[in-house]
Amino acid sequence: MKLTVLGPADFLKMPWKNGQGVTTELAVARRPGQEGFDWRISTATVAAPGPFSVFTGIDRSLAIVRGGSLTLNVEGRPDVTLTTRTPPYAFGGELAVSSTPALDVADVPIDDFNVMTRRTGWQHTLTQHRLEREALTWELPAAAGAVAFLYTAQGEVRVTSRDGQTLTVPANHALRIEGGEVCELQAASGCADVFLTALVRRR
């Protein structure tokens, strides 16, 4: 099992594809010799209503990290409002999507969490959890070449692998895991909010 802790110095900030916001890229699998990516995990800030960038052929999942609620108007679907306590929302990147934020604090933007995979080659899952007293058992993807990714939104998370490795992932840091079967997750103190992603190649 390979564990890699990533922090702000490892992340890359970039403008949105449509130029109307900023994304912080946490991890990415770029396409060799081609434009775009096979998968990407990122956060972004949303402060004002506006459209999302279009990503044809990409499956997306979106969740709220902090800062308020975000109402999405998605082509061909009913509107949906996301908060820090609603499940991640999945949709196709080629759909026309616009968002309207409701900020908890004026002039402090919403932070959201995004996972995107190229539909022809990869698939993903995204879940969010609040860790309190009890530990959470995280079953890692077993397929060859799969990647598991943990992002700590609040608090500190203690990660213990079945082979005995233990480390702590602070707030606004991430853990990339390659290989392995199971990890146990626990708030290092108080409570912690985490996002868990699994990325697997399609067969």
From TrEMBL:
<dbReference type="InterPro" id="IPR010282">
    <property type="entry name" value="Uncharacterised_HutD/Ves"/>
</dbReference>
<dbReference type="Pfam" id="PF05962">
    <property type="entry name" value="HutD"/>
</dbReference>
<dbReference type="InterPro" id="IPR014710">
    <property type="entry name" value="RmlC-like_jellyroll"/>
</dbReference>
<dbReference type="InterPro" id="IPR011051">
    <property type="entry name" value="RmlC_Cupin_sf"/>
</dbReference>
<protein>
    <recommendedName>
        <fullName>Protein Ves</fullName>
    </recommendedName>
</protein>
